[in-house]
Amino acid sequence: xxxxxxxxxxxxxxxDKVKKEELxxxxxxxxxxxxxxxxxxxxxxxxMRGQAFVVFKELAAATNALRQLQGFPFYNKPMRxxxxxxxxxxxxxxxxxxxxxxxxxxxxxxxxELTANVPKKPPPGLAPPLHSPVVPxxxxxxxxxxxxxxxxEETNEMMLSMLFNQFPGFKEVRxxxxxxxxxxxxxxxxxxxxxxxxxxxxxxxxxTCAMKITYAKK
Length: 218
Known about the structure:
By secondary structure, the protein is α+β, with helices and mostly antiparallel strands. It is built from six helices and ten strands, in the order E-H-E-E-H-E-E-E-H-H-E-H-E-E-H-E. The strands form three sheets. The chain has a four-stranded antiparallel sheet with strand order 2-3-1-6, sandwiched between helices. A four-stranded antiparallel sheet has the order 8-9-7-10, covered by helices on one side. A hairpin with a 2-residue loop joins strand 4 and strand 5 (77-78). The chain is globular, with a radius of gyration of 18 Å.
C-alpha cells in the first residue's frame, strides 16, 4: 500500500546507541537544510528504538529530504526514510490531535497547530541568520580549508560531517581539542570549499548559534 506524501517523514534503521537529545540535534542539523522543521519525535521505548519522525512545515521540504537523504549513512547506519502514515498515532499524540475524529477535521487542526508553532521555532537552516552580525565577518583569501567558529558546545564531528559531506569535494572535518566552538573542514579545491561556505554561512546547528565560516589562513 502506497503511503501518500505528507509533511511528516518516518525514519528507521537509526543507530539506537545514540542518546535521544543528541539524536534530535543531529536530525535537526541534517534535515533543516531542506526547510523549516516544526517538530522532531524520537523515543527510546523498546517499540520505538531506532526510529524517528521529522515534521516539516512544507510538503516540498519533506519530499526533498526523503529523496536526498534516503540511505544516508547516519551514525554508520543507512537511514530508511518514508512518508509517515497520515494517521500515525505517535505524531497524533504528540500534536494533541489523537482521537476518533474525522480525518478532515484532524487535518485542519494539524494545519492550525503547525502555523501556531511556526514563530517559536528556529528559521530554516539555510535562511539568513536572524541576528546577522553588524560587522561583516573578515575573511582570508580563498583556501580549500574552511574555518568554522561560533559552534555550540554540543557540536561533534558527526554533525559537521553530515552537514558538509553533501557538497562535492568534501574530505574531512577536524575538531580542535579543548575548544568546542571552532573546527576546520577540508575540501579538495578552493572553489568547492567556497560553495559550501556560501551555502552554510549562518547555519544554525542549534537555535541560538549561527555558524560563522571563513577561509582558513594559509
